[in-house]
Amino acid sequence: MAPPSSSAPPTNATPAPDLASALQLPHRPRRNRKLPAIRGFAQETWLAPQHFIYPLFLHDGVGNLPIASMPGCQRLDMDGLLAEAEAALRDGVGAVVLFPATPEHLKTAFAEEAYNPNGLVQRAIRALKSRVPQLIVVTDVALDPYSTAGHDGLVGPDGRVLNDETVAVLCKQALSQAEAGADIIAPSDMMDGRVAAIRATLDAAGYTDVSILSYTAKYASAFYGPFRDALDSAPKAGDKKTYQMNPANAREAMRELALDELEGADMVMVKPAGPYLDVIRRVREATSLPVAAYQVSGEYAMLKAASANGWLDERAVVLESLMAIRRAGADVILTYYAREAARWLREDDSPPAG
Ligand code: PBG
Q1: For residues 99 and 142, what is the distance between their CA atoms, to the nearest angstrom?
Q2: Whose CA is nearest to atom 5 of ligand 1?
Q3: Cβ pair 223, 272 in contact under 8 A
Q4: Does residue 54 contact residue 136 with C-beta atoms inside 8 Å?
Q5: With pLDDT > 70 as the criterion, what percentage of the chain qualifies?
Q6: Residue positions annotated with a catalytic role
Q7: All domains of the chain, ordered by start, with CATH?
Q8: CB 145 within 8 Å of CB 105
Q9: Residue 218: which of 191, 197, 199 has the closest Cα?
Q10: Whether residue 336 has its Cβ less than 6 Å from ligand 1
Q11: What is the pLDDT of residues 234-265, one digit of tens each?
């Protein structure tokens, strides 16, 4: 019998005579794919708006500014941020992560603006928490937006990125974000020992309920290019290979994971996501903590550009890429597509036609 197509009901149409003798196959996996409801029984992974964290760029001016290499994303002003956050919540996305663009004149060698209680991020957190208190606010801990050198850490006289001196500044930054009302602190800097130091700082100040989502396995990836355009935060000299991980390494991610667990991380992250699905899987199997993955700016830009050219079907490839990240083992996905994907998923929730 001819296999029914996915949309048509099964028929008993007589097969063509030359195909009439059925193969004696004991196993026919296609039986579990023959109709939408049966595919539903067999489905192993789900994608829903509750899995998304929505990254937002802010700037301290008036009006929302486009980002050339990330069409559809903007550097938002304060009103734009609040409007986008409310819209995200309406779309079912429960969390945002904030990335500020710092004007050149506020960048310094010691990145003091990172812990200015009236800095852009600190004001944004307070505004979000008073306007949309249900929305979870995640903040990034790293010095690159605030440092003249454009590195995630302080740079010594010989050009090296200093670890322990940086951790002291990261603690001040994390504390100022917690004081402003951040729910989750996400250190993306990859300095050694920063999770333990931030945890101790937060606890000593009474912020025992503020979570740490550690960028556990953050790779020295070329896929961050558009993000650095968006924030004008590319390193002025050198690269980030002395602190971010070598893309060739997966075992090393297990070591970072073990340390982050010991240091008190509440959730762990792999970044980028799509090119590092094997790392997501290994982290998933090695930890009982929630695992996040960051579909980064370069992944977004690739999907946008190919779709804009008509080379890929945007909705289909975006949902497939996000499902693949979930299948690899991510509980949570940071994605610039959070709002659109949430809307597409809601449309998909309408009962299947066939
Ligand atoms: C900063 C930071 C980066 C990203 C998140 N936090 C850039 C970098 O490390 O250079 C990248 C996010 C993206 O590309 O979407 N520490």
Answers
A1: 10
A2: 188
A3: yes
A4: no
A5: 93
A6: 218, 271
A7: 47-349 (3.20.20.70)
A8: no
A9: 191
A10: no
A11: 999 999 999 999 999 999 999 999 999 999 99
